[in-house]
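INFO  loader      accepted 1 record
INFO  loader      residues=472
INFO  predictor   begin
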Amino acid sequence: MKMTSGQGIYRCGLSVFFILLVSFSIPLTGAQTTIEVGETNPPQNIILLIVDGMGSAYVTPGSTPLALNGDPVESADVPFFQNMMSDGILLPRIIVPTPSTGPAHSVIITGFSGAEQELVEYNDATIYDVLKDEGFLCIAIMHNGDFSEMRDEQDIILHSPSNSISTPSLQVQVNDAGVPVDIVRELEFWEQELPGYIDGTDGLDSYIAYSNWELDASRDIVTLMARQHPDMKYILTINVGVVDSAGHYNGVDGYIGSIEGVDSKLEPLYSAARDSNTALVITADHGMAFKTPESSRGGHASEDYYSSEAVTVPLLIISPNVVFGIDQGEYNQEDLAPTLLSILDIPAQLSYSDGEAIPVKDYADLWVSVNTKSDVEVIRGSEMVSGGSGDCMYIFTGLDPKTKYTIRVINNEDTLEQSVHLNVDRLVRFDMVVSNDDTIVRDGRTLGRYVASVLIFIVIIGGLLLISRIRD
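INFO  predictor   done
INFO  writer      dumping tokens
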């Protein structure tokens, strides 16, 4: 049934109304005090490498992927991917809520399990929104997965409007006039380099040539940033789309071969990241399933292909502040966004996230938020580990992980306490009873947002009432 324009406006108004309700639930913030309790060593920058369609069982040591008929499928030979585990942590059981490219990319960057592409454009919804507030430059090189909302989140992106391997087209999109000109020129240079990689290739070789181009371009961006802009923080998002394409159109052999091709080019990117205090995070948006071990075509999004191979992806994190080894625990894809922020020691919240940071760091940070200026004590057992006074937001960094702490907040004659098992970074909020002499502190940005939200709320309510009269 076709929707009328009045109904469309009405539904749009309800959607905006819902967003405003969510915005009212975001906590008020004020000044903040950072207290270094122990040593921390977060990376300066971060690379998010999404290998589109790379299922976990195909690359995890000791795992055997299965076809839908129950027979084992060949694993990929990925020696460098597995060697990197000695410098980081592998989490091979990340469960994808929706094994489809657009929704999965949206989940990765928003931390919301039900994310669709439209959510990405909302304010404060993505890791890019949070990182821009922290002074990060957002750069991306993406073969596919680059829907318009994702592209618009970047300060600059080199992407492919067409997902074709044989006849690709590329475009540099600059969304921020403040992007340094040498970065723009570098991506424009690599925009012209792709034909030289793929000319004269066909079949699997063309897929590998495409991923070689993308990983070479990414390495050069990391090198340029270290050489020309060593003090500029950035996130580089890379989406390698050839593995997904090969799985769909070249079957098991093409799929495995394309994964191995990506692995053969990881070392230069890894070295550039390591030499520039840059974390390297490798994951996938979804996996791939095959009906038999000899299938000429794979899938992941339809019910016919729904399986562990389609919805389980790896997460490999190489960063100076993570523990090393393999964590066989089961986590969710919506946990990735808060985990990325945790790695960077950024005390910021994603507005719509229902994920939680995975405990991968070798220390933990504690954020204490109080609705009025108060004194705070952090206690372990009977010992006060740290404390601060006269503020409403505290960040205690470098605490021992997997430890139980008591947080005590004191304001005049009032005292509140809460126990926290600090296995991962935590934000703890306290609402004190405010006396006549106390002042609730809000920063100008938050106050302005609330005033604007109230005004918009009033306008929308009036519009909805008018529309309902027209409909009647």
